[in-house]
Please model this.
Amino acid sequence: MCGIVGYVGQRSTAQVVLGGLARLEYRGYDSAGIAIITPGNALVSHKRAGKLSVLRDDLATNPLLDGTTGIGHTRWATHGPPTDNNAHPHLGDEGKLALIHNGIIENYELLKRELVEQGETFHSDTDSEVVALMLGREYRDTHDVSTAMQRVVARLEGAFTLLAVHANQPGVVVGARRNSPLVVGLGEGENFLGSDVAAFVAYTDKAMAVGQDQIVTITPDSVTVVDFEGKPANATPFTVDWDASAADKGGWSSFMAKEISEEPEAVANTLRGRVGAGGIVTLPELDAVLGDSVSISRIIFIACGTAAYASMLGAYAIEKWSGIPATVELSHEFRYRDPVVDASTLIVSVSQSGETMDTLMAVRYAKEKGATTLSICNTQGATIARESDAVLYTYAGPEVAVASTKAFLSQVVATYLLGLYLGQHNDRVSAELSAQLAQDFEDLPDQLEEMVQTGARIKELAGWMADTRSVLFLGRHVGYPVALEGALKLKELAYIHAEGFAAGELKHGPIALIEPGQIVFVVVPSPRDPSSLHAKVVSNIQEIRARGARVIAIAEKADAAVLPHADEVIAVPFASTFMEPLLAVVPLHIFGMELAAAKGLDIDQPRNLAKSVTVE
Ligand code: F6R
Model:
């Protein structure tokens, strides 16, 4: 969590840093701050609790002296509440050094005690301030921020990205990272640092991902990378394929509205060039590690939240198409239960950000156990992608709204591509099925566009439900992850109680929740589906309706069996079983957004959340 920006160059540092923070605000929005080295070699800084707009408003009336070197931070609070004092930067060396931090310093209490004994005074409740004070002390000894940083990181435990500037070293920003992300933006006569490329993509598309346990020093004309011992090291260069406008709202009322409208494109882009004649899937990025897929005895997906629901659909499809047993585990549960993982296990991590700490740690654990690791990721150069044996990128483009939408759809199709690829390699997928799925993929973007158009009706429904205190979601088989996803969106966006249930589980307990007026969304399988689930789900609808539930069914257009039993039907075009959930989820994404809007809530930045969860 937390967004971090650093800049050296001839532009207005205040503008570059505040602009970068605006693009990174989705990472945390409890408080924000900036520090600049002025042309007279003074360090000036300002920080405020609240959203970035609070800081910006302050600076509009009382601007800081601008300069050519600066850092900025937008915070997701871990240690200490979101107050002005706890906001970053924190200062050291009697106000001449400024430091920003993303992550958690696990041994900060011990370090703090030492610093207090040495006579240092603390002004915040944060773990980060210990680093500022330690750096200040080491700077006084070394007169070089990079050398001071080497000494300090040697004493830190936990996860951190750190950026620091010192008034006596204008034109220099030093960064360090362990378990938290840091990328360099390479310019002409200027360089940038950011938690991710969104910080600088408006200025350059040339980037370098700083590796684990590396320290980077940028000046206007140089980028130097060393490891924590000070030995020369290499960061990984890459070209950013997002343009700056992709991360702009582009006239939409919220990023989430824009990103839902981009769901068809996200799916089309993720499929593009990967499905050839007869539905043969080509994924050259996987060939080296998965070409010989017969050696895989099982697949475990690891992911959190929405990405875990996408993984469930992937596991269902992969097991069906390739015959390889596939399951899903929440990353944060996985490694703590001593799972059986060996060289024949394929671990597939699914992560939009590629930085989710729980997932990263699970990937590292699996690697230690000898498993093959594959990352399905939306963010180029992300840590999980770099640390995995292979990466299958989704091409959803930048997702800025905290609630994941288009990334979910692109993750699902990426897992489907993986399933087909494996099934075709081990000859379990027939030519007919390959051809049918190729046709399904081709139809998908237009069908999704149709679903995006349900927005006006969903908005009306959300309008009359604004006072609702609880909504339930039911689904079965591929409809179950959709139910979970619908409920998660409602919790995080509209702050109301919402639960997703497997429809078959209803009679084992949850049906007791049904009382007159309870709103229940039901994801109904197609009546043409070869399984007999349609009739079972229609029976479930009747059971809850008989107990007074108000049913909103998401059902196939011509599904006459549902009409008599539902208060409202959201029609979905006919699609094959594995495409249905992709269509059914769109109105639920819209519903979460519209209910939040009807309640006057912040759609893009829901309370207590952050986009990338880079702490455990
Ligand atoms: C929900 C949501 C989260 C993320 C989860 C994993 O709308 O966005 O549940 O899906 O935090 O994030 P990534 O995919 O970045 O690992």
